[in-house]
């Protein structure tokens, strides 16, 4: 009995330490991922800080990218893995959408409630993209292994 207690006292902390440091990892090999990205312009000008979403209409899964100052974006499955799944996609582009880990920190508040009091809703960025390119999107693409560039030339009245 004393030997069992001694083993537990010695091995218990090791098992707890190993259990606490283990991190799950996603199995991306089951996804049919290809590189994907491009450029987004609005009225001929690069559109910075826009979220580009490629949504699978069958299962609702989404791959996202964020445009830089030149309007360029690269799609990613999550915060660790770049790429986009193949197939037909509904494309939504928005300057008002906020995605934790992409254009806002995890658990980070959007805006500040100081001016309106504690209960004031956070400020949302202005949506510069017409609804026909985001919530009522008419943009669709077919993602294939042979095509990796998806440019969007948006217009706004």
Task: Describe, in plain words, how this protein is organized in 3D.
The chain has one domain: Sandwich (Immunoglobulin-like), CATH 2.60.40.1120. The chain is globular. It has one helix spanning 2-21; strands at residues 33-34, 37-42, 45-46, 51-55, 62-66, 72-74, 84-85, 87-94, 139-143, 152-154. The protein has 157 residues and is α+β, with helices and mostly antiparallel strands.
Shape-level CATH architecture: Sandwich
Structure annotation, total helices: 1
Helix content estimate? 10-25%
Report the mean per-residue pLDDT as an integer. 81
Which blocks of ≥5 consecutive residues have pLDDT under 50?
A: 3-12, 14-18, 110-116
CATH topology: Immunoglobulin-like
CATH class: Mainly Beta
Query: Proportion of β residues?
Result: 25-35%
Largest sheet: 4 strands, mixed
Count of individual domains: 1
The CATH superfamily label reads Carboxypeptidase-like, regulatory domain
Task: Using the CA coordinates, give the radius of gyration.
Answer: 22 Å
Distance between the termini: 81 Å
Number of strands: 10
- Structural class from helices and strands? alpha+beta
From the spread of the alpha carbons, the general shape counts as globular
H and E string: HEEEEEEEEEE
